[in-house]
Amino acid sequence: MIIKTKFDVGDTVFPIEKTSVEDWVSCDFCGGTGKITGRNDKERGCPECYSKGKRQRFISTPQVGMKTTIVRMDIVCGNRVEEYYAGKNGAYLSQKDIFSSYEEAKEECEKRSKETHYS
User: Is residue 6, in this structure, part of any structural domain at all?
Assistant: First the structure.
């Protein structure tokens, strides 16, 4: 069986990466306290901000081109196929984070960075 992939081994791709920036906001889940209170009045650390009371913002940044060395296919629920690619550093990357040109990667980063992403 032949499964067509977006990129082949040896293709140059431009991944994007999530990068933290020095922009912190109060955690809206715990109200900035870093704690949540259960029904039995016991306090626990907030799972959203990891008990910090604040969350850091992330933006997407384009990376330099890298050659694909591995194409891995995962079959997931509903027979949907998702592709992952590995470069020289051995990191697997999702197809949604890989582009065929730096310009495409940069455009997607600008789009994603307009959305607010907090840890």
Answer: no
Please give the single-letter amino acid code of residue 87: G
Which pTM does this prediction carry?
0.60
Burial label for 83, CB within 10 Å (0-12, 13-18, 19+), is middle
Rounded to whole angstroms, how far apart are CA atoms 29 and 12?
41
Tokens representing residue 44 in the block:
């626990």
Alpha helix ranges (H) inside 1-119: 102-114
Mean pLDDT of the region 48-63: 84
In a domain, 105, yes or no: yes
Placement of tokens 């969350």 in the chain: 55
The tally of domains found in the chain comes to: 1
Local structure of residue 78 (DSSP, 8 states)? G
Output the CA torsion sign for 25, 28, 29, 33: positive
Residue 41 lies in a domain: yes
